[in-house]
Amino acid sequence: MIPEIGQFALVLALCLALVQATMPLLGAFLGRTEWMALARPAAAGQFVFVAIAFGVLEYAFLTNDFSVEFVAQHSNSALPAFYKFTAAWGGHEGSMLLWITVLAIWTMAVTVGSRSQPEQFASRVLGVLGIVSAGIIAFSLLTSNPFVRLAPAALDGNDLNPLLQDPGMIFHPPMLYLGYVGVAVPFSFAIAALLTGRLDKDWAKWTRPWTVAAWLCLTIGITLGSWWSYYELGWGGWWFWDPVENSSFMPWLMTTALLHSLAVTERRGIFKSWTVLLAIAAFSLSLLGTFLTRSPVMVSVHAFAADPTRGMFILALLGLISGGGLLLYAFRARELEAEGGFKLVSREAFLLANNILLVIAASVVLFGTLYPLFIDALTGQKISVGPPIFNLFFLLPALPLCALLGIGMHSAWRTMSADTLFQRLKWPAVAAVAAGVILPFVFYRAASVLTVISVSVGIWVCVSSMLDPARKLLLRTGAPLTRGHFGMCLAHFGIGVFILGATMASAYNLEVDVSAKPGDTVNAGNYEFMFRGMKRVEGPNFVADEGEFELRRGGKLITVMTPQKRVYRVQQNPMTEAAINVNPTRDVFLALGDPLGGGAWSLRIQVKPMISFLWFGSGFMALGGILAITDRRYRQLRQKQTVRTEAVGAA
Amino acid sequence: MKPRQQRMALIAGVLVGVVLAVGFGFRAFQENLSYFFSPSDVAAGKAPAGRSFRLGGMVVKDSVQRESGSLTIAFVVTDFANTVPVRYTGVLPDLFKEGKGVVVRGQVGADGNFVAQEVLAKHDENYMPPEVKDALAKSRQAENK
Predict the structure, then answer these.
(1) Has residue A37 got a pLDDT over 90?
(2) With 50 as the cut, is the pLDDT of residue A651 above it?
(3) Mind listing the pLDDT tens digit for each residue in A51-80?
(4) For residue A543, which phi and psi values (nearest 5 degrees)?
(5) CB neighbours of B83 closer than 8 A, spacing ≥ 6?
(6) Which of A363, A374, A382 is the best residue to mutate to test the B interface, defined by the most B CB atoms within 10 Å of its own CB?
(7) B30-49 residues touching A, CB cutoff 8 A
(8) Residue A636 predicted with pLDDT over 80
């Protein structure tokens, strides 16, 4: 009975989404206030019913209701409760429901946050969100209903894929979904602006915090995924240019471009049509990502069970939503007039370069992701675009982008003398290049050209983004630092830290596969591993062989590492749990391979310098985003609105 | 030159540069692509010699051989029409198993063995890489003819 309530709630949510998708838009078009007024209640109602549906699915998981097919496929009575909870998004149907839930959360946030905006505009934004929501809920109900019953009910479930039985599963998918579904909000703001024909600085100011919020979640979500893959799935790899990783990374690149373009639109009233186009592109890439993960075309960790009708449905939805957006853009873009110009050396020009390079980077990733699909469709030849190609072609736009970032941050709006800029930045630049050349040689005695360039760029970005905060916080000169400005500096600093981590961890990664018996000592770099022995360990739903290794450096014991080889009871698949010794300057990674006979095991040992910088760097980016959203400008927006409602109340 | 001509020259220059960059980029891209071949393709001599490619199929039952304590392993990959012997030194992925699908990346050595640099097995034991599935379907068709 209870699963049917979930299904029914989802149907009701679809009805309300349809109301939300039609009435407010029609009302805004015909000028009928009572129709526009339907937007908020419909959105709120939809949120409630979606929450009920999601709650019901969770209930089915937590109570082991194996009469629900999706639960029977992805859970098991022996699964720890906390993985039962996360198993709800461990398969296609449930992850679609998560998508819907996340969109409902964003829509709800918009209904609350858009009260200060004109009714005509807000109702159009909610209307567009309603269209997206109706499409996705219809998709879920028609092709991938999570509440389908299994008759007769299964005695026990098929268990959650052991790879997904990890704490990473709690945060990575919801955070990532919050990010790439969140891009729907700037998208609907853009469409609403095209519909009203009003796209001004105010519009940019309203759109910016939402864009930062989506970008922030996307940044955290991608980083968590990368971290998870590093310690669990990827045998120490943190990015594989896997098609599905790419399909979350492309929206990230576009949203980053959008953030910067919005800054120009807010400040100067230019780049308007470009901003709108970026918003449409960013959300289209999000939908494309949803399509790629759910179609039979992908070979990936993330690929869900293949079903062509599902792929076609999402592709049609993608065509409708982005095609419609682009069509509207084609008709309306000409009306978006620029309010001013700028010179070749100015912040606008640097932000334009930022946008162009980010779009090129996203195009490279898109091309590399889709090219094998086209070739397969056209010739039947199976090819794959490997990481070396992606690395090379991605760095071509990315390194100049980061180098320019450091200059652009210090340029002024409208125009600036190139000489002033040069005087201000020459010493930091010289210092960064010097450090980039010297440091790798001091620590590693060898460096490729690419390493020197990347380290220089990384240090350059770190230094130049901290110049302003240092000047203002330490020397107390100049205007006080606003949160928005400091957030920007911090996020850029994070980029620099990230580049350093990525460069060092890739250029000086030490990786060896060895065979060892208990009692053996293995050397890797400056480290010694003493294999003490193996023992049997029992987990709640698995048994494991656990190795014990003493990690020493220069004879001094650092720690005891205990990597495991697990076998989960239900699916009987082996799983490697690596042991990692973390330190800001390097990670030592040890994974058990297979028993080789005679008590020997194969081992994979990796020493990765500065890999923690990747996570710290992303952390700084996210922190910068949080500071930017909580800037006083946006709080004032809210205060004004409270004053207004009070005034209305008093009247 | 008049300013108009100057601008045209600049645009033409940029265009030529972009076309060249894209052209060279695409060539480098093509040269670095990794192609997929089935054991039958390899038997028919379609696979490039001295260049890395991916080979996919099933690991033949009881074909896995390993000297005790050594990291080197030998096994045979089949598409049920032809077979290719493979050698690999290193740690195997968790889901590598006899009788299951596998994709290996490497090149054919002088002795006719495929020397793998990397072994990829899928993340779910029932899941079959589409390339392998296609290759198996093709060899089955060829058999039925």
Answers:
(1) yes
(2) no
(3) 999 999 999 999 999 999 999 999 999 999
(4) -120, 150
(5) B39, B60, B76, B77
(6) A382
(7) 32-36
(8) no
Cβ contacts of B63 within 8 Å, gap of 6 or more: B74, B75, B76, B98
- DSSP-assigned states of every residue in A87-123: HTTSSHHHHHHHHHHHHHHHHHHHHHHTTTS-HHHHH
Nearest-CB residue to A382 (from B66, B93, B131): B131
Contact B125 A573 (CB under 8 A): yes
Q: Do A596 and B68 touch (CB under 8 A)?
A: yes
ipTM of the complex: 0.81
Among the partner-chain residues B25, B68, B69, the one whose CB lies closest to the CB of A393 is B25
Whether residues A389 and B33 touch (CB distance < 8 A) is answered with yes
Q: What are phi and psi of A124, to 5 degrees?
A: -70, -40
Instruction: Collect all residues of chain A within an 8 Å Cβ-Cβ radius of residue B69.
Output: 515, 517, 596-598, 600
Distance from CA of A639 to the nearest CA of B (A): 50
Name the packing angle between helices A243-268 and A184-196 (round to 10°). 40
Question: Max alpha carbon distance in chain A (Å)?
Answer: 88
Contact between chains at A596 and B33 (C-beta distance less than 8 A)? no
CB of A163 within 8 Å of a chain B CB? The answer is yes
Give the residue from A269, A207, A263, A220 showing the smallest Cα distance to A488: A263
What is the 3-class SS of A24-39, one letter each residue? Answer: HHHHHHHCCHHHHCCH
SS (H, E, C) A354-380: HHHHHHHHHHHHHHHHHHHHHHHHHHC
Q: For the whole model, what pTM was predicted?
A: 0.92
Query: Is A578 in contact with A588 (CB distance < 8 Å)?
Result: no
By the CB < 8 Å criterion, does B27 face chain A? no
Peptide linkage before A152 cis (omega within 30 of 0): yes
Percentage with pLDDT > 90 across chain A: 69
Q: Chain B contacts of A384, Cβ < 8 Å?
A: 33-34, 36, 54
In b/e form, how buried is each residue of A84-100, taking b as 16+ CB within 10 angstroms?
Answer: bbbbbbbbbbbbbbbbb
pLDDT of A641 reads 53
